[in-house]
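Q: Give me a backbone?
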Amino acid sequence: MVYVPDADIDRLIAEDSGFGDLTTTALGIGGEPGVMRFAARHAMVACATEEAARLLARLGARVELITRSGQAAEPGTPLLTASGPAATLHAGWKAAQTLVEWASGISTAVRAIVDAAREKRPDIVIACTRKAVPLTRLLSIKAVHSGGGVMHRTGLSDTVLLFPEHRAFLPRLDPAALISRLRAAAPERTLAVEVNDVETALAYAQAGADILQLEKFPPDSVTRVAAALGSLPHRPLIVAAGGVSATNAAAYAAAGADVLATSAPYSAPPRDVQVTITLAS
């Protein structure tokens, strides 16, 4: 479970209504009782409805959470309802709506890649990179999980991943020497290596890498690597990365990739959430 701290919820509230609601105050309607309903306008995989509910509750609304993160919602599906004074509802309206729309956009995009890839390989894993929008990583991770994906890396301290940019500082060390150095320094960690061509992939496989991250390989090159690795006593895991999306996920799955690493969901458009506010009867 990904837990979003209350401090983050409070920052969302303060960002939009920290200086008060001029319109509601000017109209003198702040104390009037109302009901606010959130519903999916289009099909989506819901996400961050729990955080939206917490946001509204912190403002003093009574909230009923109907659709939880990770659940598929067809058009018109109710997500949550909140009741309370008009001032409370208006104070949390847009912050809560925007949060659910943005997070659900990510989770829906992840689910599309998962579904496309698993038509060809049911056990394939979809992993999202750490290239989330800055300062949104915690909620982005929740959205990835809600869509059926996992995190490729949550940060630099999460895994050992040897990039060409690391190798540039050690030009005299061959693949075997680099793997040996990493194995000695981090004996409990699996060792992943990003490669840019088939020859380098095979060299690091023979050197004992646990994971090969094939950067921007077309599917036919992934197939070549997968076929070549079949004769090795220690077959590295194959991660296809760079440019992976719902449109080509099936091709990469069929090519022999074990994991698809992608950052595409982070730029997915938000999923529309319809919000209605009415005077309580």
